[in-house]
Each structure stands twice: as structure tokens, then as C-alpha cells.
Amino acid sequence: MEIFDYDNILLLPRKCRVESRAECDASVTLGQRSFRIPVVPANMKTVVNEDICVWMAQNGYFYVMHRFDLDNLQFVRDMKARGVYASISLGVKQPDYDTVDRLVAEGLAPEYITIDIAHGHADTVRKMIAYLKKHLPGSFVIAGNVATPEAVIDLENWGADATKVGIGPGKVCITKMKTGFGTGGWQLSALKWCARVATRPIIADGGIREHGDIAKSIRFGATLVMIGSMLAGLEESPGQTVEVDGKLFKEYYGSASDFNKGEYKHVEGKRILEPIKGKLVDTLREMEEDVQSAISYAGGTRLMDIRKVNYVVLGGKNSNEDLMM
Ligand SMILES: NC(=O)C1=CN([C@@H]2O[C@H](COP(=O)(O)OP(=O)(O)OC[C@H]3O[C@@H](n4cnc5c(N)ncnc54)[C@H](OP(=O)(O)O)[C@@H]3O)[C@@H](O)[C@H]2O)C=CC1
Ligand SMILES: Nc1nc2c(ncn2[C@@H]2O[C@H](COP(=O)(O)O)[C@@H](O)[C@H]2O)c(=O)[nH]1
């Protein structure tokens, strides 16, 4: 297996088929809906809040609300009251089953449900998928996180409509250091490995550091990418604003950090400061433009045309040496 990551892959252009990048369609379909770009903000407390979710839904983007210190039921009610789709996260504990029961009792079916735990290749996830498929059969179920083809096959066989791949590549992740496991450092090739067996969409989660990494993820089999750090330092980002030496930052912490958990137990995440660098609307527009450009370099007109391109594996960061075609 080739081992590589975002910073040592480059995609190779094919003959251009458009006269303007405006002809390139960056949209993606997940379940019953299409979204403007193949990007979803990470379901983390310092990345999304209810206002951001509403705005994203109203403006044609996919979102997944986080599941921490949140009344999921009220969130779904609010989204339905505004006439937009609901996309929530669940864990696998008894309160999560209670949430499902209450949603069913109120006749509230979220359009998307993401089962979001650290080690998603687990019987607890199998049971939750089965419960959701029985009680909320209309909801599109995303399950994760996982890191291997075996896990993707199992989750799909258990009924997941999409899987989320990435254990440990996140910017505030310390899983690799704390446990010795994960896809940190080789997330892109782990994605490629998983995509070979996937028959349903994969969301590549973690490790995106540049807009070009979105196209690279699509090339290696992702349908969407989940992004945390690059969307945590925006003016609207929910993390606390912190001033250091006259410069403004937003705090960004891991969902498995003591900052999120409120205690130091099974900690696999840390807190960092992200420089504040603009507004969400501008960042998403720039991402769309960059994906449109990527499609044009791929010689295509649609997002999945990026899958057709060749690539080179570079020797290392800043290396000019092409090792593999
Ligand atoms: N993508 C990634 O690399 C990672 C992401 N995270 C994120 O942090 C958040 C909290 O995750 P998580 O702690 O799972 O959520 P929860 O605290 O809700 O735990 C979910 C369940 O999984 C169990 N569990 C957690 N980790 C493991 C493990 N390694 N092996 C076996 N069982 C486990 C927990 O039990 P118990 O706690 O008693 O073991 C609990 O029963 C999530 O949003 C998750 O996505 C966390 C770590 C890695
Ligand atoms: N190992 C951990 N991973 C975490 C934690 N909190 C979130 N995450 C994952 O990171 C991505 C975002 O990655 P980024 O590189 O875009 O910043 C997020 O979607 C989760 O999958 C954590 O505490 N530990």
C-alpha cells in the first residue's frame, strides 16, 4: 500500500473542457439533497452552533450539529420551525436512545443523523444504526469514525448510509500520541484504502489544511470532507475570542479534550488558538471557487470528474522529487 498524506500528493491536470470556471459545478449529493460544495464543518462546539447551522441550511450547505451540552430535540424543533432540514449528532449511550424515542414520540425525523464516537467500529454503533433504521427509517445515517476497510464494510452492512473516515488526523487530536493508533500522518492514503471497498459515500474527516486538500480528498474517494480547524477561526466561529499581543484568535478545542468534557478523563484532544481570518460566507465562497478551479484542472465540469485524474507522490514536504506515478 502506498502511504501518503495531503502534503505529499499533487494531482495532474487534464485538458481543459470549459471556457470559464463558472461552468464547473462543485455541488454534491448526499441522501435526498444536494449541497453547494463537498464540505461540512466539523460537528464540534468551537466550529458550529445553531445560528451557523441555520445559515448553512438556508444557503445550500451541509451541516452537522454537534451533540455536546445540547437539547437535540429542541434543535430539531427549531430547524423544522424555520423550514430547514435537521442534521444532528448522536452518541451510543442511553440518553442518545432516549433522544431517539422522544423524536419519534413528537413525530420529528431529522433528515440526517451522524453517529459520532471515537472508535466507530463497534457493536454499540451497530446497535444504534439498527435502532435508528427501525424507529427513524427516513433519516440518512452517517456513522463513524473509522480507519479501515473492514470497518467501512461492517458499518455499511449494519445499515449506515455513509461512513466517516479519520481517526486521529485532526489538528486538535492527540489520539496518536496517547494511544499509538490512527490515520494521523497518512489520512489521505487511509481514505484511498477505505474507498476501495466502500459502496456508499465516505466523509473524509480531519487533516484538511488547504483548500486544495478538498479536491485531493475527492480524488481518493471522499464524497465530502469534514473540516474543523480551517473553520474554527472565523468571525462567527463559536469558540471564545482571545486577544494575544494585540492579535485576535478563536479558541478551538477537541471534543475529547478536557475543555469539552469538563474533566480530565480519557482525554484525546487539546485546545489551540486559531487566528481570526474572515467571515464564514467568504471562506465558503472561496472554497467553492477553488473546487471549481480544481474541476477545471481535472478537465471536467462536475465534482466527480476529479476522480479521473492521475497524481504524483512527492518525496516529502517541499520536495521536488516525484517518487511514484
Ligand atoms: N476522530 C477522532 O480521531 C476522534 C474523535 N473524537 C471525538 O470526541 C468525541 C467524544 O468521543 P467518545 O469519547 O467516543 O464519545 P462518548 O464519550 O460519547 O463515548 C462513546 C462510547 O464509546 C466508548 N468509547 C470511547 N472511546 C472508546 C474506545 N477507544 N474504545 C472503546 N470504547 C470507547 C465510551 O465509553 P468509555 O468512555 O467508558 O470508554 C462510550 O460508551 C466525539 O465527537 C468523537 O468524534 C474522540 C477521539 C478521536
Ligand atoms: N482525536 C481527536 N479527534 C478529534 C477531537 N475532536 C475532534 N476531532 C476530530 O478532528 C476533526 C477536525 O479535524 P481538523 O483537522 O479539520 O481540525 C473532527 O471532525 C473530528 O473528527 C478530539 O478531541 N480528539
From TrEMBL:
GO BP of this protein: purine nucleotide metabolic process
Keywords: NADP, Oxidoreductase
Main enzyme class: oxidoreductase
An annotated Gene Ontology molecular function: GMP reductase activity
Domain IMP dehydrogenase/GMP reductase: start-end pairs: 5-310
E.C. no: 1.7.1.7
Binding-site residues, NADP(+): 202-225
GO cellular component: cytosol; GMP reductase complex
Task performed by this protein: Catalyzes the irreversible NADPH-dependent deamination of GMP to IMP. It functions in the conversion of nucleobase, nucleoside and nucleotide derivatives of G to A nucleotides, and in maintaining the intracellular balance of A and G nucleotides.
Protein name (database record): GMP reductase
Native source species: Polaromonas hydrogenivorans
